[in-house]
Each structure stands twice: as C-alpha cells, then as structure tokens.
Design brief:
With 415 residues, the protein is α+β, with helices and mostly antiparallel strands. The chain has helices at residues 43-50, 61-69, 95-108, 113-131, 134-146, 160-163, 168-178, 194-205, 251-265, 271-279, 310-327, 331-348, 352-364, 372-381, 384-395; strands spanning 2-5, 11-16, 22-30, 74-79, 83-91, 184-190, 226-231, 237-244, 286-292, 297-305, 400-405. The chain starts with a strand and ends in a 10-residue tail after the last strand. Pfam families: Peptidase_M16, Peptidase_M16_C.
C-alpha cells in the first residue's frame, strides 16, 4: 500500500492486489446528498447521471460506453449520502483506458440541455421505482424519524418534488463547490505497479481544480420516542426500530457495536432469532444495521411478520433488549459473536471492491487508518464490558419505530 498527494492536493492511494487479473480505478469524493444546498436538492444524484451522457471526445452515452465495452471493462457511478464514486474495473494491461475514461467524464462532460431534460425523466422513474419497494420505503421513513427536518432524514424519492427546478446552472454550481481535489481520493488497485499507477494518476488527474474542503451541516438524532404507521397493501407487516449509534470516525465503538449486532441477530443462535423464530415462530428472519456518517450514526432492527403478530413481535424485541441490559451477555455469546464478525470481516476483504473501500474510505474521511491486522486484533480483544457499554448507550435512547402494514392503525408497547 502507498499513499501520496499530487501537487493539486488530490489524494492518491495505491493498493497492490497481485492475485487478481484486473485493475480497479476509483474516483471517490466527499459530497453526495449531504453536500446539497436547499435549491440543489436531488442535484448530487442528477449530476452523476449527466457524467455518462457525453463528453467533448465522445459525444454520446453510447460512444462513452463503447469505449470501455470494447476493452471488456466494467464501470459505474454511485451517489450516497456523503460520497460520490466513479469507477472502472478493467483487465490488467489495459489500465490506461480506465484512467482516460474517468478523466474524460470528469473533466470533459458536456452537461447539455437535452441531456438534462432526458435525465430528468429517467431519474423520476428511478425514484418512483424505489417508492414502490416496501423495504426501501421502510428504510427511508425510519431515517426521517431519526433525523427529522434534516438532510439525513430526507427521503430519496421525495427529491422528485425538486426535479423540475434543477437547472444546468444549479447543477454546475454544486459541482464547482464540491468536486474539488481536496474532497477526492483516486484509488488504483490490482495488478499494476506503483510506478505505473502514479504516472497515470499524474497524467490524467493533474488538472483537478482545488477548492474548499466540504463541511457538512450538523446533524442530530431525534431524542423523543416516535411511532409512524403507514398502511400499504402488503402480504406481511414490516417493522423497523431505530436508535442512536456511532459515527464512522468512532472506530472502536463501531467494532463493539458490530459485535452487539451479532449477539442480537447474527445467525440462528442469536438472541432475537432464537426467541422470535425458534421459540415463538413469529418471523422468518430478523436483521440489524449500523449506519455510520462522518459525525453521527444510528442502530436499527428490522423484521417482517403477519399483521396479527406485529404487536407481539415488537414487544418481544423490546423485552429482549431490556433483558440484555439487565442481565448482560455471557462470555460464550461474545466469543461466538467474535468468530462470526471476524469471519465476515476477513471473508469480505477477499472481494476486490470491498478491499479497496476499506482503505480509501478511511483516507477520505481522515479517520485513523486501522490496518486489517489491527482491526482483527480489536475484534479479538473486545471485552464483555465494552460491548455492554455500547448497548447501554444505544438502548438508553428512546426508540423510533416505523411500521408498514395493511390495516393496523395503532398499537401499545411494552416499555
């Protein structure tokens, strides 16, 4: 691994991965939806679409795609809450085609009026697609309960309301302010030498404009208990419960929290799985999640069941949380959680893209760089008291509960 910064302040990360047959080139930036101003709502994602519609060299989306298709390469763009990412995966020996492509779309995209109008329609359909997915609606609605009246709580499909107001000027202002070298990292990974990677990085990205490092608006978790019931014509009721969590910079606490997730929902022997499925037969499966932003985060539990079993399922989850807080966890439980988490962590890094993301996200957000070995050691050395400390912090927060269900209008809770 090698990290450097070009003269224009663009970060460059080189990650050798000699056992692969490919080179992975990623241009990842701090921006995303959280970098939007009020009139720019939806602009980050809109801009991503426009990068693939034509450049000075390759005038159409078809020409752009053909340039990489001819080399057998894969490419895509992603817009998240705090990041944007444009990447190419290409066979070793053809890496320069990937560099040229990313440089071309980044520096030479045309942003024509006709492309903006075309993408306006496409994005409307994409947002409508997500609104028709119950799992996505549940996730978005829970976010709005956790982070009310904030960017983090804005539902993706609600951006439809602003689509017709986004102009070329607004989109390019967002780009000019956020798409600057200080906010980006270029990662080159795979079967390529460090010397070649750095030469190509300098050749294709030395023209990157500089600017101000992005600063996201402060976010806060809702402090009061909230319940939102949405009636939809579904075969199952869907339940999500959210609590405060940890930011991406809180490295140790995140590990403790991941272990807590394993204890609660990690496999058939986990507490909630054992109680809700094996003993009470209320559900098929149950999941937990930890969403980490740069300065804040949240912990969630999700499951599905018959509507008639919804009140019992919710109250059983709350009872299991209370039981954990009063009775603690055992050493055997923690050891099982460690084994599961360690396997998940190391197995995931066998996937090329996950290996890249593990390192470039750490560099991009300036948190301490934790090696794979140190991360594994932290998992192995975690104590029962450390896991209980995060459990007490998370579950002392008042729950935010979101439900999608056919007919139920209200329910009572065991608290």
């Amino acid at each position: 691994m090698f990290f450097t910064t070009l003269a224009n302040n663009l970060q460059v990360l080189y990650l050798p991965f000699p056992t692969t047959s490919s080179v992975f080139i990623s241009l990842k930036g701090k921006a995303g939806r959280r970098g939007e101003q009020e009139k720019e709502i939806g602009g980050a994602h809109f801009l991503e679409h426009l990068f693939f519609d034509g450049t000075i060299k390759r005038l159409s989306a078809s020409e752009l795609s053909k340039f990489l298709d001819d080399q057998g390469a894969q490419h895509n763009g992603l817009t998240g809450t705090e990041t944007v990412n444009y990447f190419v995966k290409i066979l070793a020996g053809k890496a320069e085609f990937g560099f040229e492509y990313l440089s071309d779309i980044y520096f030479n995209s045309l942003f024509r009026g006709e492309d903006i109008e075309k993408e306006r329609k496409v994005i409307f359909e994409e947002q409508a697609m997500y609104k028709d997915r119950p799992e996505e609606v549940l996730k978005q609605e829970l976010g709005s309960l956790l982070y009310p009246n904030q960017i983090l709580g804005r539902k993706f499909y609600d951006d439809q309301k602003n689509l017709d107001l986004l102009t070329k000027e607004i989109l390019l202002n967002y780009k000019k302010r956020n798409y600057v070298s200080q906010n980006f990292i270029l990662t080159v990974a795979g079967k390529i030498t460090k010397e070649s990677a750095l030469v190509l990085a300098e050749k294709y990205f030395s023209q990157f404009d500089q600017g101000k490092i992005i600063s996201f608006p402060k976010a806060e978790i809702e402090k009061e208990m909230k319940i939102k019931i949405i009636n939809q014509n579904l075969g199952q009721s869907q339940l999500a419960i959210g609590f405060r969590g940890y930011s991406r910079l809180q490295v140790q606490e995140k590990i403790f929290c991941f272990l807590l997730r394993k204890i609660l929902t990690g496999g058939h022997s986990s507490r909630l799985y054992r109680r809700l499925r094996n003993e009470l037969h209320l559900i098929y499966t149950v999941h937990s999640g930890l969403t980490c932003f740069s300065d804040i985060g949240d912990f969630s539990l999700e499951t599905k069941m018959k509507e008639e079993n919804l009140p019992q399922t919710l109250n059983e989850i709350l009872r299991e949380i209370k039981k954990l807080l009063t009775g603690g966890i055992t050493g055997d439980e923690l050891q099982r959680a460690k084994n599961l988490l360690l396997s998940d962590f190391l197995f995931s890094l066998e996937k090329f893209e996950a290996y890249v993301d593990y390192f470039n996200s750490q560099y991009l957000f300036k948190n301490e760089i934790v090696s794979i070995e140190d991360n594994a050691k932290l998992i192995k050395n975690t104590s029962v008291q450390q896991v209980m400390s995060v459990a007490e912090y998370i579950f002392s927060d008042k729950p935010k509960i979101c439900i999608l269900t056919p007919k139920l209008k209200e329910l009572s809770l065991f608290l």
